[in-house]
Request: fold
Amino acid sequence: MGVIALAASATIKLTSIMDIVVVNFMEGSSCGVTEEREMAARRLRLTTPRESYKTLFGSLFLKLGVALVVLAATLHMSATEEASRARDIEALVEEKINRDGPGVAILVSRNGVPLLTSGYGLADMKAGTPITPDSLFDLASVSKQMTGVAILTLVEKGKLKLERPVADYVNDFNVPVNGRPITVNDLLHHVSGLADYTSDDWDGSDEEFAALTNEGHLKWLNGTKPRRAPGVKYEYNNSEYALLASIVERISGQRFAQFASEHLFQPAGMTRTFILDGTAKLPADAVKGYVTKGKDKVTRSSSPTVITGDGSVYTSVRELSLWDKALCAHTIIGRRSQELAWTNGRYDNGNPIKDDDGDGYGFGWVIEKKRHLVSHSGSWNGTAAYLLLDLKNGLTVAVLSNDEKTAVSDLAEEIFALFRDE
Reply:
C-alpha cells in the first residue's frame, strides 16, 4: 500500500519524475551504468525536449511504471534479505577468522547505497574491544585511488596536465633519465621506471624509513638511478605515488593530508577519515595491528610511516560508504575524470598496460576489463585491505582487516559472489 501510494503521488508532477529518471536511472552515476542505458539516455536527450515528456509518457500507467522503476532502483534490501545476507557473510568470515582475535570490517553497497556494514573480531585484543563499522583502519595501498582523485581535482581546475613532465611541477626533481622526461601519467600508471623506496632500492636504516617525509623521499629519489626508461614496462612502485603527493603539495601549497581533507574527504562527508603524516597521533578508535603466525599465535604488528600518497589513509567502512557514494555521484570529480581514473594506461608503443595477471592499471585502480571490475589491495604491517567495484552492476565490496595475513581479497570475492546476481 505504501509503495503504491508513493508511486501514485509521484505521478502528479511528470516533469520532476522524468528528471529523476534521466539523471539518476540512466546517466547520473558511473556505478552500474550499462551501455544500453547510456544509449537510451543519449537518444532521450537528443530526441525529446523536456517540455515533451508529458506527451511521450501521457498515460497514468506509464507514469506509475516509471515511478516504480525509480523507487525500485533506490530501495534498500528488506530486513529479511539483509539478515539472510548478514548470516551468509558471517559464515564466510567464521571460516577465516577467530572472533577472539583480530578480525575484519565489511562494506557492501550498490550504486552508492550501503546494503551492509559490519564488524567481526577484535579491534584491540588486550582490551577486548570489538571491531565495528566505525573502527578506523589503515588502508595501505588502497589509499592510492585517493591520490589519483587528488591529481584529477587539479586537472579539472586547470592547474596540472597529465602529459607534462614531473619536473614542471616539482622543479627540484632531477633523477637522470634516458630518453623522454618522466610525466605525471607515468607515475599514475606505474611505468616511470623509477626506484622504489619500499624495495631493496632503499639503503637507509629502519629509523630513517619510519621518519621519511615526502620531501625526504624526494631527496632520496634524486640520489638513485632509474631502473629503466619511462613508458616501456609496468612495475608497481610506491615511490611514484609518494611523488604524486609531492606534486599536489607543490601546486596547492598545502600538506597532502590537508589538501585531501579539504578537497576529497570533507566534500564526501567523511569527517573521521584522515591521512597520518606525523602531524597528529592515531586516535583511540584506530584498530591495533596484528599478524597471525600459525594456527593460534597472534602478535602485535605495527610500522606506521609519515610519508603520504602511497598509503596512510585511515578510515572506516562506514566512511568508505560515503567515498563510494561520492564516486558514484561525482561529488568530488566529474564523470569524465572518474572514467579516466578507471581506464587502463598505455605504454609508449601504444599497447595497453598489463600486469603479471594480465590486468591493467588506472589511477590507483587495477582494471579487470573482462569482468568490468576495478579494485585495489593494500597490505602493511598490521593491516590488510581490499576494495572492489563492479562498474557494470554498481556493486561495491570492501574488506578491511587488522591482521596483515588475512586473505581480504579472497573474502571480498566470495562476498561479491553472494550479491552479484541479485
